[in-house]
Amino acid sequence: MNWDDTRIFLAVARSGQILAAARRLGLNHATVARRITALETALETRLFDRSTNGCFLTDAGSRFLESAERMEAEMLAVRADLGSNSMEVSGTVRIGAPDGFGVAYLAPRLAELTRQQPGLTVQLVPVPRSFSLSRREADIAITIERPEHGRLIAAKLVDYSLGLYASQAYAERRELPASINDLADHDLIGYVEDLIYSPALNYAAEITKDWPSRFEVASALGQTEAVRAGAGIGILHSFIARSDKSFVPVLPDIRVTRAYWTVQHESTKPLRHVAVALDFLRKTVAADRAIFT
Fold it and tell me: Which of 60, 78, 90, 236 would staple 45 via disulfide (CB 3.0–4.6 Å)?
């Protein structure tokens, strides 16, 4: 058994397909299939059940995955240690974040990281409902809940608040509510309930038992734009709404508090370019902490 075969095994396990793994590794499809067969022969066990729908880990494959990831972590640590004398940071770091935080906050600020580290390529991607750090779909993820399972390293990044907002145009057209009970007489903007992937996103439940929204949008930025257009009152991230004078606070004493967490797979901890990006995120958010709360 050699490391290259193990590296190929990891790519197939994470992608769930030989073809996808081959593309990621820059290898021929047949080569990847042959190397997996060679690894199974060396281990004298079947690691994958192969079908037209993809490759699925067997029980033996799942057990070997844990060992393979430990091997990978050791290899990464050695490479990081041997390269520690170089001051230059290079490589690609992928950061996954919710759309509100990622687009409205991170996107304008990550350019500074690329200016500080010319050899670093930064990728910012949305965090979907189903997201896997173990499959390296991102090096760093920003989440709204601390993960409880997996070989993950999590740390609180910042607390943030949400509140009720309307547009200036809506406020001029309609008298704003003076109490929670008055919300029932207004046009409300909400989320698509069956697409909420975390209980933490159920903001309205903390404000009122009933939120009869007439316009539902499945993304935080979509809700922000709907409120901006005068469609009604919505629950918006305060760090977005407060920066735009076109938004008017509604019942400002009512706030919902959540937190952002940074999460990484433990095997990426030795990687210098990931550590540099994570340090940049933490320092940038710490400097801006006042806008979140």
Answer: 60
C-alpha to C-alpha distance for 28 and 63, rounded to whole angstroms? 27
**DSSP letters for 213-235:** -SEE-SSHHHHHHHHHTTS-BEE
Task: List, for residues 18-28, the tens digit of each pLDDT value.
Answer: 998 898 888 99
Summarize pLDDT for 77-87 with one digit per residue, the tens.
676 666 555 55
Determine the pLDDT at residue 182: 94
Complete edge-to-edge strand list for the sheet that includes strand 234-237: 120-126, 91-97, 140-143, 247-265, 152-167, 234-237
Q: Which helix (H) or strand (E) holds 248?
A: strand 247-265
Q: Give this prediction's pTM.
A: 0.73
Residue 199, φ and ψ in degrees, nearest 5: -55, -25
| Residue 102: DSSP 8-state | I
**73 pLDDT more than 80:** no
**Distance between CA atoms of 15 and 20, rounded to whole angstroms?**
6
CA dist list (Å): 279 to 13, 110, 272, 284: 30, 12, 10, 8
